[in-house]
Amino acid sequence: MLAIGAAAMVVAAAPPSRTTGRIANVTDGDTFRLTSGERIHIAGIDAAETQPGNANFARELAIGAAAKRRAIALLDGRTVAFERVGCSYNRTVARVWIGHRDLAVTLVDAGIARWWSRGEPKPDWCG
User: Fold this and answer.
1) What percent of the chain has a predicted confidence (pLDDT) above 90?
2) Tell me: the pLDDT tens digits for 104-124?
3) Which of 35, 26, 39, 20 lies closest to 67 in space, CA to CA?
């Protein structure tokens, strides 16, 4: 039930002014780098890890690699609008839109990411 409420909140609360940027490359299912060099982590979601030192299990790496490929197909080279909401691990945390569509909703709907609220345990990608 929480995920449905979070999805509704993300879609309904678009800010009046946004910054725009073009995606240079996709790091994984929830993080990308803009052509400006700024790294963006999409607020409110988590994707499986793609780096061995960050993953809990080998299976998570396989899930993460598949999610990254799907995210690249959706995002690489696209122009996005975003609103900065924080900073984590030297990355900007932001709400992100492609056109009028909330990117977090798009990625969760595509099975690339899961809803995750900061301070809560990260989703279990291997269970």
Assistant:
1) 64
2) 999 999 989 999 988 888 888
3) 26
Give the separation between CA 12 and CA 8, rounded to whole angstroms: 6
| Model pLDDT, residue 15 | 53
Measured torsion, CA atoms of residues 20, 25, 31, 36, in degrees rounded to the nearest 10: -40
3-class SS shares of the chain: helix, strand, coil, % to 5: 30, 35, 40
Going along the chain from its start, the domains and CATH numbers come out as: 2-115 (2.40.50.90)
pTM to 2 decimal places: 0.82
Task: State both tokens at 76.
Answer: 């690489």
* Cα–Cα distance for residue pair 95/104, rounded to 1 Å: 8
- Return the H-helix or E-strand segment holding 58: helix 58-75
Give the β-pairing of 31-34 and 19-28. antiparallel
Lowest-pLDDT range of 40-44, 62-66, 84-88, 119-123: 119-123
Report which secondary-structure segment, H or E, holds 7: helix 2-12
SS3 at position 109: helix
